[in-house]
Design brief:
Elements lengths: L2 H23 L12 H18 L7 H6 L2 E2 L2 E2 L13 H16 L1 H15 L4 H22 L14
Antiparallel strand pairs: 1-2
Helix pairs in contact: 1-2, 4-5, 5-6
């Protein structure tokens, strides 16, 4: 395990703990089972747990890293490909795409496109990307729209429920 992994993990634990504590301090809304205090509490707790997993190397095999990076004469070869360097632009480009078209297309269609593009950019095959792009936005829509009562853009595809 590298020191930078431990530092990053512990930073995420601290950030998640601060968000969870801030959510815990928010007063609940009377008469609502899920108020504004729940979201930062859940997200902060999840972030802290992920930070602990990173800090202690849970679920990561460091022996596999040597197999992934090809060596040529003892020197690591940098990953190549026409679009490899453009991957860093993917998150802001997808965020901009969502902001520009979510009201017109709706949450389901926009999120499905974003999930599909992200999954394929990360190397998933279409057999995994398509079901993920179809199911993930519907699940997110049900959680946020129905459970948390967050209004999401309807657009072209109104949900029957």
């Amino acid at each position: 395990m590298h020191l930078s992994d431990r530092v990053t993990g512990l930073f995420l634990v601290g950030l998640g703990a601060a968000a969870a504590y801030g959510g815990w301090l928010l007063p609940p809304v009377p008469g609502q089972p899920v108020g504004p205090n729940v979201f930062p509490l859940v997200i902060g707790s999840g972030l802290a747990l992920c930070g602990l997993a990173i800090a202690f190397g849970i679920g990561h095999s460091f022996e596999e890293e040597e197999e992934i990076i090809p060596l040529e004469g003892g020197q690591a070869i940098a990953p190549t490909g026409r679009l490899y360097g453009l991957r860093a632009l993917l998150p802001p480009a997808l965020l901009l795409f969502y902001v520009m078209v979510a009201d017109r297309l709706g949450f389901i269609i926009t999120a499905a496109l974003i999930v599909y593009v992200t999954a394929t950019a990360l190397g998933a095959r279409w057999k995994l990307s398509l079901p993920l792009a179809a199911l993930a936005p519907m699940g997110i829509h049900l959680i946020f729209s129905k459970l948390l009562r967050v209004p999401l853009p309807i657009g072209l595809l109104p949900m029957p429920w």
